[in-house]
Every structure is written in C-alpha cells, then in structure tokens.
Design a protein that fits this description.
Shape: extended
Strand order of the largest sheet: 3-5-6-8-7
Oligomer: single chain
Largest sheet: 5 strands, mixed, barrel
Helix content: 10-25%
Length: about 150
C-alpha cells in the first residue's frame, strides 16, 4: 500500500500532463559537478547583440592503481587529467568569476552540459562540449598569491 502511494506521488511530481491527453512531458536531469583546479585566467567575450560570457577551463584528475594482486598497496599509481571548458552566462556570477577566478584556484563548479558546433578559422565544423555554470564555490585562495 505504501509503495503504491509513494509511486503515485512520485509520478505526480515528475510528470506534468498537458491539455492534450496524448502528450506527457517528463522532467529530466542535466546536472554536472566538477571539483578541480583552474587552468587559465578567465576571458570575457561578447558577441555583438548577445550577453557577455566568462570562459575558463578546469582540470579534474582520476587516479587508480594498476597491478596484480588484491592488495590496494601494490601496483603503480596512474593518473588521467581531463580538461573541461566552463562558460558563465549568469550576470552576477559571470562578473564574480571574471574578477576572482584565477589560474590554479581550486573550485567546485555546478551546472549543466551543453553540446554545440562552431566553425574554426579553417572553415572546419567542430563540436564542443561546455559546462554552463550556475554556481561556483571557491575552495582555496589563488596559489600564485601564496608564493
């Protein structure tokens, strides 16, 4: 009984029916959280007729041990660094990011994935994956200021 009631409540929360009985809109999630270090000072760009955008990159690292045996202590440690492009369109956050995000800063970036296309200088069509940030948490001061 409780399981059925929970399922019905969940369906009511997730599904929104329209006036057309055949069309059911379901919610979905496009959510990203990145914890890493900034690779470059941010740039502010503005295309004519559009709002400005602050752009920077952030690196995340994945580490694992390779080798035989069941012991976690044995084996070589390997690391892979992945770079992510972050775009900030939100007006207040865009300005804060441009002013305070610096190369080497440790950040938590929350946002959504966006896939797009552009044409490069050689007229070649390229695909780009971008994180559209809607929240940035500063976890450390700029490393260069400490040196």
């Amino acid at each position: 009984m409780l399981r059925l009631a929970s399922r019905q409540i969940f369906q009511q929360i997730v599904r929104h029916t329209t006036t057309d009985a055949t069309l059911i809109l379901e919610r979905s999630i496009n959510r990203v959280q990145l914890l890493g270090r900034v690779g470059q000072d941010p740039l502010m760009r503005q295309v004519e007729g559009r709002n400005p955008v602050t752009i920077f990159s952030i690196a995340t690292n994945e580490m694992w041990r390779s080798g035989e045996g069941e012991s976690v202590q044995t084996g070589d440690v390997s690391q892979k660094t992945t770079w992510h492009r972050v775009s900030v369109f939100k007006p207040g956050l865009r300005d804060v990011a441009y002013q305070y995000v610096k190369k080497g800063s440790r950040l938590l970036v929350e946002g959504k994935l966006d896939y797009g296309e552009y044409v490069d200088k050689n007229n070649v069509r390229r695909q780009a994956t971008t994180i559209i940030a809607d929240n940035i948490v500063f976890l450390s001061d700029n490393i260069r200021d400490k040196a």
